[in-house]
Amino acid sequence: MGSGRDDYDPSREGAEMDFRSKMSYGDYLRLDLILSAQKTLTTAHDEMLFIIQHQTSELWMRLAIHELSAAREAIARDHLKPAMKMLARVSRILEQLNNAWDVLRTMTPADYTHFREQLGQSSGFQSWQYRLIEYMLGNRNHAMLRPHVHDTQVTTLLQGELNSPSFYDTVLRMADRHGIPMPREVLSRDVRQTHAISEGVMEAWKTVYEAPEQHWDLYELAEKLVDFEDYFRRWRFNHVTTVERVIGFKRGTGGTSGVNYLRRMLEVELFPELWRVRTVL
């Protein structure tokens, strides 16, 4: 039975209702492509969760790469204010990625066993977007190029990143331009390699932290980087605990040692001097 009154009709207030010749919400977002990309290989109920978890993570990583690239470029041009906004956004993106683990953890070990064998050798450590983020941030492990050699376009992209100054290199060069001298050997180092902790860099950051009112822009940028790495560490930690909860200490589908491999990743520091400078203040 009806309610005795007309249903609300948004067109009466001017809302567009006919999209036969106009771009709709679904058209703009290409939802036909996105929502047809969840191709399960089994009848296991939880496989859909597993696929969507990883697909949405890749989308968030795509946005993180977009923001980090623009922020690095802005810092290289001494445009700190827009870079700060972008870095704040990346921290929020990592918060979303962290929250996603809570959803995946609703999958029990028994649930996962129903489709794990169908994954073959595919594994999250093969994500080229994750590798690009690691390279951008300065963790330049050349061995991790090997899972991508079958894809010339991706390999070229990753090699291009390795040939560019990392995010932290860009920040250190900007600090040097703004009156906080950095060691010459750090500024002229081989950017293809991972940054090694430097006492000279830590002393430079100590100057900033001991007088933040005199170096406010650099101080604020440093704290933005710490905030970002804090979220990044949590993302890695949540990955470890989720994997341990679901598969224990089994080997990963891609052949890694699983939890033990992920735990080693927890030891990676992106901006080491910014963490250690707190000890000497």
Structure explained in plain terms:
- With 281 residues, this protein is mostly helical.
- It has a single domain (42-280), classed as Up-down Bundle (Methane Monooxygenase Hydroxylase, Chain G, domain 1).
- The chain has 13 helices and no strands.
- Helix 3 runs parallel beside helix 8 and helix 6 (128-137) runs parallel beside helix 7.
- The longest helix has 32 residues, at 216-247.
- The radius of gyration is 23 Å and the shape is globular.
> Total domains, how many?
1
Tell me the distance between the termini.
74 Å
Provide the structure class: mainly alpha
Q: Quote the beta fraction.
A: under 5%
What is the radius of gyration? 23 Å
Mean pLDDT figure: 90
For the secondary structure, the number of strands is: 0
Please describe the biggest sheet, giving its number of strands, its sense, and whether it closes into a barrel.
none
Gross geometry = globular
Low-confidence region ranges = none
CATH class: Mainly Alpha
Order of helical and strand elements:
HHHHHHHHHHHHH
Q: What oligomeric arrangement do these chains adopt?
A: single chain
Any guess at the CATH architecture? Answer: Up-down Bundle
**Tally of separate helices:** 13
The portion of residues assigned to helices is 55-70%
What structural keywords apply?
281 residues; mainly alpha; Methane Monooxygenase Hydroxylase, Chain G, domain 1
